[in-house]
Amino acid sequence: MNNTKLLSFNKTLSIAFAYVGIVTGAGLATGREIVQYFVSFGYTGIFGAIAISVLFMLFGKWILSLGSLYQSESHMEVFEDVSHTWIAKILDWSLVFCCFVMSFVMVAGAGSNLQAQFGTPAWVGSLICAALILAVSYMDFDKVTAALGIFTPIILIMLLIGLVTVVTGPDVNWTAMFAQAEALPTTLPNISLSVINYLAMCLMTGTSMLFVLGGQIVGISNAERGGVLGGFFVGVISLITTILIFSKIDVIGNDPIPMLTFMTDINPYLGLVMFIVIFGMIFNTGFSVCYSLGKRIAGEDDNKFKKVMPIIVVVALLLSLFGFTELVAVMYPLLGYIGILLLLTIAIAFYGARKHIAQEKGVRGKLFALLLKRADDNKDFTAKDAKHLDKLAADSYGDDNSIVEELEEVVENLDDTEE
């Protein structure tokens, strides 16, 4: 594998892990969400988890590629280009509302997680999570991306361990478990609407940050592949989590953090690792919604961003005191219904932007080739090449200087790997 392909693969994997980190805290981390959206429908919940895998792959590709195309700093930069003004405003306020709601739901989830593991008051875990969100928000964005993805491989390993335990352990009476699962309460009417609502809820939570993430990716192909791979990972996590909860639904069906209890029953040390992973995944989403909300309010004003973040985090901490389980039951379906408009807009936007995305891939590919040539002392970079480079930069959807600078950084990184 040459250095260019290696960098591309590493970037794709980093994007995929970050994608998982952004959306799983809201929809997967504790298992409580899976109970409400899939498990409570009995065996049909398995088909719902499979369907959601495909949808996450599609929408991951679409959102990240649109973000990369427009080099977006916030969701509003994309919506203004792909939809009518009034739709853009509705979606903007909806996502702002969602980020606001999920900020305190996730902080509440962190408190509930710590309470379940150590018996501490819920506000202690919420305070720790809030402090971490504020601290990380001032870090460099590349470091933030790495932090978002750090728990993805760990959760995959943990779930595989759980799956092996179920397969190799005592026989499970799946028929009885499915029947018992159907008796659990849910606020959703059927599995089809539940799948759409779940996808919409997760993307309402993650789209703002995913557009920001996509805007930091200069290679549209990397963005697309990262979205598809990330969606696949989310699907695998959703399906395995659903199966694991079904296998012990009689024990953990009403548990506030069922996956923590599941792993602790296997081994207390696994439970401790799962506690850390769940806390990290909740933090990922909590950070994502707070960060994207701060960016939406502050725009490109870094000083304003630094001033508004403490306010957002403190408000989230105070509102988290309402309790995690209660907030999930009420707020998640509400956000899901609001998010259906978001799903339609993204699908229509990507369909309309397909040609532009294909053209932009060609433009950036040629820009990259010219910048490689300019950086190579063994090649003659002519005045004609320089003129061509300027024209390509002007033709790009992104800001002329920004696109060139981003690609120059890729070239420099490539040179570093060759040394």
Helix and strand arrangement:
Layout: H1 3-27, H2 32-37, H3 44-70, H4 75-82, H5 85-118, H6 122-136, H7 141-149, H8 152-168, H9 174-182, H10 191-215, H11 220-247, H12 249-252, H13 258-266, H14 268-298, H15 302-319, H16 324-375, H17 383-395, H18 400-418
Helix pairs in contact: 1-7, 1-10, 1-11, 1-14, 3-10, 3-11, 3-16, 4-5, 5-6, 5-10, 5-14, 5-15, 5-16, 6-14, 6-15, 8-11, 8-14, 10-14, 10-16, 13-14, 14-15, 16-17, 16-18, 17-18
CATH topology: Amino acid/polyamine transporter I
Return the string of H and E elements.
HHHHHHHHHHHHHHHHHH
Structural class: mainly alpha
Q: What are the low-pLDDT stretches, counting only 5+ consecutive residues below 50?
A: none
Write the CATH homologous superfamily: Amino acid/polyamine transporter I
* CATH class bucket: Mainly Alpha
Task: Describe the structure in your own words.
This protein has helices at residues 3-27, 32-37, 44-70, 75-82, 85-118, 122-136, 141-149, 152-168, 174-182, 191-215, 220-247, 249-252, 258-266, 268-298, 302-319, 324-375, 383-395, 400-418. The protein is mostly helical. It has a single domain, classed as Amino acid/polyamine transporter I. The longest helix is centred in the last third of the chain and has 52 residues, at 324-375. The protein starts with a helix and ends with a helix.
Task: Name the features.
419 residues, mainly alpha, Amino acid/polyamine transporter I, 18 helices, 83% helix, globular
Outline of the structure:
It comes from Aerococcus kribbianus. The chain has 18 helices and no strands.
